[in-house]
Design goal:
alpha/beta; nine-stranded mixed beta sheet; 11 strands; about 30% helix; globular
Length: about 260
Amino acid sequence: MKIVVLLKEVPDTWGDRTLDLETGLAARDASERVLDEIGERALEAALTYSEANEGTEVVVMTMASDAATASLRKGLAMGAHSAVQVTDDALRGADLGVTARVLAAALRRTGFDLVITGNLSTDGAGGVLPAMLAEHLGVPQATALSAVEITTDAVSGTRATDFGTASVTATLPAVISITEALPDARFANFKGIMAAKKKPFEVLSLADLDVDVDPASAPQSIMTAVAQKPPRQAGTKIVDEGDAGEKLAAFLLENRLA
């Protein structure tokens, strides 16, 4: 079985997150670059299955600039067998539609039985990429799983709903996404870090994938304006002088909150 895990490099969640006010893109150099934790959890699920099932190949894949190479190698150090990085200057600022189309092309080229992703990234938080990938690839999807069980011909899991939980199953090949309910990822040890240097690492361009992302021929999101978030203003303070209830009710009515 071949499992492809999609990883993404994001600005450190504990660091500053800012937008470039000229381009509207995330200023990724404003803080340390790290692998998104939800992607690491997805990789842990794949590696756990691989260790228990001989002959399973785990591939890590990302679409990012050359600067993300070190982060992708972390996936190799954790235990993945090979890596694929899609990088091209034309992909700078790519929206979810373009990202899904390009990654789907890379997945077709690489081949897969199962694709595992996080349910949403901590920078964009779109949450729709797994479903878009499944649509492009023409395979079943099972998204936002809080528990996963993989067999040789199917994948199943549990998904939270408004009314409790639901059990879902998809035959392979398939695309699934997982939530933070899955176990934490393992740490890369020294042996893994050294072994990662010798593992296959393929770099692909748009030409390699035969994908055109020219805005004239592919629908893309258009940003019309971008501005810095205004400073947070102090809220209204109500002092209880025996009439706090009346003041609160008046405030709610005035601001159409009641």
